[in-house]
């Protein structure tokens, strides 16, 4: 099988480890294959790809979209290293407000599947990181929301020992108890 699928907590998060083939020419791996992903329980119809380039110290997030425009995401770091974070924002979930942090890198080739109802963000660990992710719903600016990265009720360990570089938008996001909005 070209992929190993690892179910993580909170429930619904899946780490995807592709088989990576190396030889004298370089490296080859499959990144996405609908039939294999469906067998693993990932039945998303991805409709949009997003691409970002960030410098060391940048933190993006925590972002999500309100219903009915919520998005499942398949996140991969193509170059560099990031800590990718997904937070369960489903109020009725047994894992509400719990999060997972996973290192994604160009070297390990792993991807993280994040279902609808989760907030998402990442911190850049390398000098530069190139991140690409698929979504199963198109971006809708009217549904754009976020939560402050240092929300006290979430107490996320971002795994960083530096004050991150944030956008003005991310600096001004509310904490969870202040009414999640964009």
Task: Summarize the structure in short.
The chain is mainly beta. The protein is 5% helix and 42% strand.
How would a textbook summarize the main sheet? Answer: 6 strands, antiparallel
Order of helices and strands: EEEEHEEEEEEEEEH
Strand order of the largest sheet: 1-2-10-7-12-5
Note the overall shape: globular
CATH architecture: Sandwich
CATH superfamily: Jelly Rolls
Average of per-residue pLDDT values: 95
Number of helices: 2
Q: Please give the alpha-carbon distance between the first and last residues.
A: 41 Å
Number of domains: 1
> Structural class of the helix and strand makeup?
mainly beta
Number of strands: 13
CATH topology: Jelly Rolls
Instruction: Bin the helical content.
Output: under 10%
Strand content: 35-45%
Q: What gyration radius follows from the Cα positions, in whole Å?
A: 16 Å
Task: Give structural notes.
The protein has 182 residues and is mostly beta strands. The chain has a single domain, classed as Jelly Rolls (Sandwich), CATH 2.60.120.10. It is 5% helix and 42% strand. A hairpin with a 4-residue loop joins β1 and β2 (13-18).
């Amino acid at each position: 099988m070209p992929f190993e699928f690892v179910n993580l907590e909170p429930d619904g998060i899946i780490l995807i480890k592709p088989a990576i083939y190396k030889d004298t020419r370089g490296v080859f791996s499959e990144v996405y294959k609908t039939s294999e992903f469906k067998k693993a329980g990932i039945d998303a119809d991805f409709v949009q790809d997003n691409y970002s380039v960030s410098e060391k110290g940048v933190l993006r997030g925590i972002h999500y979209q309100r219903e009915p425009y919520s998005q499942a995401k398949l996140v991969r770091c193509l170059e560099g290293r990031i800590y990718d974070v997904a937070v369960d924002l489903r109020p009725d979930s047994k894992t509400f407000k719990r999060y997972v942090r996973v290192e994604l890198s160009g070297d390990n080739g792993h991807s993280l599947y994040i279902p609808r109802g989760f907030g998402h963000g990442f911190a850049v660990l390398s000098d530069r990181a190139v991140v690409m992710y698929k979504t199963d719903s198109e971006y809708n600016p009217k549904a754009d929301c976020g939560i402050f990265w240092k929300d006290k009720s979430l107490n996320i360990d971002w795994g960083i020992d530096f004050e991150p570089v944030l956008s003005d938008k991310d600096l001004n996001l509310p904490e969870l108890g202040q009414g999640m909005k964009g």
